[in-house]
Amino acid sequence: MRRYSFKKRLLFLVFSVLALFIILMMRLFYLQVIQGGKRKEEGDRQYKSELVEKAKRGKIYSSDGEILAFDVETYEVVLDPTIIKEENIDEIIGIIKKNIPNADLKSLKQNILQKKKDKKRYLKIDDKISYIQKRSILDDLGKKKYLKLGVFFESFSIRNYTKNDVFKEVVGFQNSENEGLYGVEKYYNDLLKGKDGVVEIFKSPHGIFNLTSVSSGKEAKTSSENGGNVILTIDSVVQYTLDAELKKAYEQFSAESTSGVVLETETGKVLAMASYPKGQDNSQVKNRPITDLFEPGSIFKPLIVGMALQEKAISENEIITSNGWIKIADRTIKDHDSSTTGALTLDKVIANSSNVAMVKIAQKVDKKVFYSYLEKMRLNKKTGVDTYSEATPRMFTIDKFTEVRRANVSFGQGINMTQLQMIGALNSLVNNGKYMRPYVVDSIVNEAGETIKKNSPFQESVIFSPEVSLKVRLLMEEVVTKGTGKGAIIEGYRIGGKTGTAQKAGINGYEQGKYFSSFFGFFPVDKPKYTILVTINEPKGQYYGAQVALPSVKAIIEKMIKYKGINPEGVTTTQVDQAKKNIQTEQRDLNKINQEFMSGIMPN
Q1: Nearest to residue 430, comparing CAs of 318, 353, 501, 523?
Q2: CA 231 to chain CA centroid, nearest Å
Q3: Bridge partners, residue 517, by sequence
Q4: Cα–Cα distance for residue pair 106/115, rounded to 1 Å
Q5: 382, 441, 383, 384: which is closest to 191 by C-alpha?
Q6: Which of 531, 526, 529, 534 is nearest to 494 (CA)?
Q7: Could you tell me if 170 and 184 are in contact, meaning their C-beta atoms sit under 8 angstroms apart?
Q8: pLDDT digit string (tens) for 73-101?
């Protein structure tokens, strides 16, 4: 009986143990398999968090290697109150105060304790610090290793602009979210800003952090991709020269504003583009050569002569008679003085700038053909320049192209355009008739110096024949050698140009004493390499283009001849292309910079 009872108890014990084992296994299966994913996520949430790994925005360079915009890495101290021990709080705050003297830390201890109580893991000190400050804080914390627990840093970049007054209208600027808002910064924003990654922060039970780059997806691992570096077509020396001349004219003539553009004739590259006055803050920045509309005046006349020659409405030996005035409908158009009366050859028409003769030339061209040339010159549309803020043109429609308006347009009044539109059209006239789209960015390269985008010269159309282009160039050379542009003569060099003085239109018609004064120049005449346009808006005192705008253009040409070593035939003897190679070399040195940075050395 006892033996039977013992066996019974033994079997009960075995079955009980077996049942418990089965229950335990089922529980383990439930926890590890069925709820394994959920438990893992809970664990990850406890010991892992994600931060965005910001890509560094690309730099912006001038064509000759001047750095104009770059990111400077800065940091903010971030605390994890759940890790910091209460007895260490005062020491940590003392170290922060020592290295960030201006930080407001009055309520920091209270905030740490409160977030510790609420189990909140994130507390940021809103003071931007440098790499040196960051290293100093880490060194001070490292003297007592336990103080490092719960203290880490978030990094981000601040955009830095050099030579800002001179280049800002073209380069532009960005907002607080590192998105481009103006100029090249906005136009090429997507290529400049790069691609952000995501940083996972893993915390050991001892509170030590480890950063690992991963993508925002769940599978592939990848780090952030820094933005491309932009190399402009803008030459810093030419830009400085243009800017200085515009400032000088702005102050000398107490003008409303001054604007200028320098193009490489055959390619359409913008070598310089600037204006005055400068904006005092970002809200006032204005790239006037592409935003402000103006009536060009007599600098428009060569285009009309070119059009008439192209259509064979006149010949190069044309003689036009003028008694100094002409009546169109109910309007009387007069010349500025007696130098443009009598029998005039084309060289005298252009050299002495006869309005009456230009009206007679315009009358020889069919109205629809005339209007079609205005369209071919892209005066009814944007130039397409690759920088943000170009104004939308407001050219009249053909049904409003009356006889009076056609007469006015023939000498550059009654039609509005931007300065870049004007120089684009004139550039086509001297460039064997080829209209080249202007552009300000040469290329974009990555950190390895590899080209990721290259802008090449783009020919929009052919408006004039090479023969017509040469004829008009020679006429504009006579403006400089015999006419209103004599002040632009440079010994040994063949300079072509045209002066322009246009009365400004107001609400009640043209305003007395208010003018747009301009000078367009190019050189050398036989094979133009550079075209330049300077416009002075409302100069005080003197106002003729030859008096107020021409001296700036001449000074720019003289500086370019010296700087680039241009001989009278237009051959450049000084090479400045080495700058681009220097930029690419800098990109290849990034590995060395990164190694220095990781070893605690602050790179140059």
Answers
A1: 523
A2: 10
A3: 501, 536
A4: 16
A5: 441
A6: 526
A7: yes
A8: 888 888 888 888 888 888 888 888 989 88
- Residue by residue, DSSP assigns 274-285 as EEESPPSSGGG-
pLDDT in the model for residue 257: 97
Token pair 């542009």 is found at 485
In the chain, the amino acid numbered 272 is: A
Mean pLDDT calculated for residue range 499-519: 88
Decide if pLDDT at 340 tops 90. no
Phi (first) and psi of residue 291, to 5 degrees: -115, -35
The answer to whether 53 and 73 have CB atoms below 8 angstroms apart is no
What is the helix (H) or strand (E) element at residue 451, kind and residue range? Answer: strand 451-454
Q: What are the tokens at 61?
A: 């360079």
**pLDDT tens per residue across span 281-302:** 898 999 999 999 999 999 999 9
Alpha-helix runs per DSSP H in 364-464? 367-376, 403-410, 419-430
Tokens 């903010």, located at residue:
76
* Type of residue found at 161: Y
Transcribe 84-127 into DSSP letters: S-GGGHHHHHHHHHHHSTT---TTHHHHHHHHHHTT---EE---
Amino acid identity for residue 237 in this structure: V
Strand partners, 417: 294
Question: Could you tell me the two tokens for 503?
Answer: 């009365």
Reading the block at residue 566, the tokens are: 């241009």
78 and 152 in contact (C-beta within 8 Å)? yes
> What's the rounded Cα separation, in Å, for the pair 534 and 499?
10
Q: Which amino acid is at 407?
A: A
Pair of tokens at residue 276: 């005055």
Half-sphere exposure of 104 (CA within 13 A, CB side): 2
pLDDT at 420: 98
The percentage of residues in the chain with a pLDDT greater than 70, rounded to a whole number, is: 85
User: What is the DSSP code string of 304-348?
Assistant: HHHHHHHTTSS-TT-EEEE-SEEEETTEEEE-SSGGG-EEEEHHH
CB 447 within 8 A of CB 590: yes
Specify whether the CB–CB gap between 438 and 424 falls below 8 A: yes
| DSSP β-ladder status, 48-53 and 459-462 | unpaired
257, 416, 419 from 292: Cα distances, Å: 10, 9, 8
Separation CA 233–CA 277 (nearest Å): 23
Cα torsion 421, 425, 426, 431 to 10°: value is 130
| Assigned token pair, 411 | 């000498």
Q: Which residues contact 482 (CB under 8 A, 6 or more apart)?
A: 347, 351
